[in-house]
User: Fold these one by one.
Assistant:
Number 1:
Amino acid sequence: MAPTPAAVTQSSASHAPMVSGGTLTVANLRAFEQGCKRYFSTKAIAAPDQVRRIIYNFEDETVSSWIFNIEDELMDLSFLDFMARLRDKWLSNTWFVKYGKILMTPQSDTPFTQWVNTLRNANKILRSKEDLYMDDKCLRHHIRVLLSDDLGVEYGTINGDAPGVLDTIADLDKWIARIGHMDYNLCHYKSSFKSNAGNNNSSSTNANTNTTNNATSSSKQHHNRKFAYKLDLSERALLDANDGCHCCCCLWIGPNHDCKYKTTPLPFGEVPKITEDYVKAERQKRNTQKTSDTKQKLTNAKQKMTTIAAVFDYSSDDASDEASVEANDADLYADEYMLPNHIFWNANLSAPSVSPLR
């Protein structure tokens, strides 16, 4: 017959918890520790007096006999050290292995909030094991490493370069709450995407049953690709300021932009990180393209020009020729082209049609 675990009772926060007769376990020692801390806080009991106030609250004869034999030694301990002595004495030598394994379990497909609460509870239970317990700083890095692949990518994208946006959140609980919100959005995004993909596959099957094999292979590719990350507030602001699309992340899209990623996610490899430097580079690229297009248009226009007249300088060293030609009776012709003085222009001519002279 399995031994009966001890029960922990506490009538109110102003009274110390009591532990009934029975086997001490990780769970009831944890409940006793929590009840004691509540009691110490309510009654404002100083640290040196804490163990004295609760040391005789164990009703089991075996435990109370052990306490009676070394009570002076135990009373000199801090409360946390007293709880560590209880666990070392009354729990099995391997009691911490189970919780150490929990502490090392990666998130995988478990919802972040559920997973991190389990991990933190295991870490609290291991407080008496200095080689396993982690303070807030170590726990933060530990959680970061064990995040699922998709959430890890999302974290890195939003966080940015070190020290990133998320790294600057000093409070551990606020940091965890922020990641929990990211995980919720990511799960909702995946669920919506799978639903849309299922509808598309269903309609494709009904439309043409002869393409079943192609649709199946296309569906597999569709589901296996990485998801695009969700835009953070700074990225959305940059897109809005530069007439950008929140679906495909294109800038200066104009009023007639028809984005093909409104209902299907943008593949991860095609997603740029929207930063000030990225916008600056895209603007420079856009201006360079505009300049190139303008030059090409001018070149094309010049090639289409029709020369309707040319003006040349008249230069002659022969005074007799110059005197023999009357300016009003004949045209003057240059004896050589003065190329720097050539003038080209575009003109629209409007004149009545006439018959050629005979």
Number 2:
Amino acid sequence: MESSDGEERGKDEEAEGADLMEVSDGEERGRDEEAEGADLMESSDGEERGKDEEAEEAEGTSTESRRCLRVTAVCLGLLCVLLLTAITVLCIKLNNLTVERDQLQPNCTSLAVERDQLQTSYTKLEFSYMEAVNERDQLKEKLRSADGNGEINHSVEAQGR
């Protein structure tokens, strides 16, 4: 949109630059001015005709400007609708995620409590295992150091395995 306006202005400026011509005394006059002067001289109602042409040009520029503004307004309107739609979709997704988080929060809390209970049970079980291993080792030492016959040692070792 803006680039076409800029291009039109650039073309107008180029056309004005091309329309200027050097006169013998060093002054510059536009070709359009000469043509308008010739048109005014040829017609009997010269000034009125020149004003009518200017009005038609201004009206054409005005129509183009209005059309350009209308296209710009439509594009901005569409962008606003698109932005509003995106915001609405994001708000709905955020709301859904908030509800899901609120539903999962109690589950997470109960899982944390269960994890702590399991950790405590594991620690107790590990302690009990270490006590049992120590007690077994002590019993084996007592049996070896005691005066007994080999039958008792074999039966105790068989039970330990």
Number 3:
Amino acid sequence: MAINHHPSLTISFFFVAVLLCLQQVTARNICDICDYKQLCRGAVRGATTAYVASQKSMEALRAQIVKRKVVIAMAGHNKYTNQCIESYDNAMDMLKQSMDALKTRDTGSLMSYLSATLSSFTNCDDAYAQDNKKSPFAVSNLVLIDMASNSLALSSLIH
């Protein structure tokens, strides 16, 4: 008895296998689009799609904002720290809007809200700069800016 091969079935199976391999994404290669790759890899570990990577990146950013707000609150209340807390609250609001836009795949709103999130962190440093002072939170704000930048880059992969 001869085995009957179906070339079209074999080719179809081959293309399905290739597509499955191409969809396997790792944190290492999904973060190649980001300027701050190491920071990205730590945030999106285990993500296999741009959607999940974006989600994880924004969740990591949210967690860092919460931690930074505690540090600022412990520094005491004055016009500078009050401005920083207000800026971080604004960043949290914009980040929540970003996460909502991600859920609905509204990429235009997602990118706009993430951009607004990013700019919120500079407002904290600007409060000090207006009085010719250096913000004691400048380094941590830079990390938050870098994380927001990575979130923007990852979100640009969503279609």
Number 4:
Amino acid sequence: MTAQITRLTREVQDLQQQLGRRDRRVQLLEREDEGLKALQATYDAEEARFGSGAEVKGASSRRGTGSPFDDYGREVGSEDAKAMIAELEAELAESMEAANNAADKIADLEQQLFELRATINAANHVPPKTRVV
């Protein structure tokens, strides 16, 4: 009798766990659906903003089939965008150069620190404003 009760309670617990997993899966799918709807709304807003004159890659094949992420790009030949890209690339190059200079300076300072440690460990270091007798 007690074995049957433990078996039934174990089955109930298993069913509750399965139900919990399915509930979490449903919640996850609902959130994913909301995200995809928001992405579609953003895409539609961009399409309305740029009008039908903007070139869209694969626009005819995208509607109604496949993932909303497929062919989610526009061919925008704006001079402002190109100028902004060039400006950002120049800033990136300057930042990379500054980072390389900083890395070189760090390497030099690490070398000096290594040499100072060697001098201090050898007891040859005399602190400033100290007289040696």
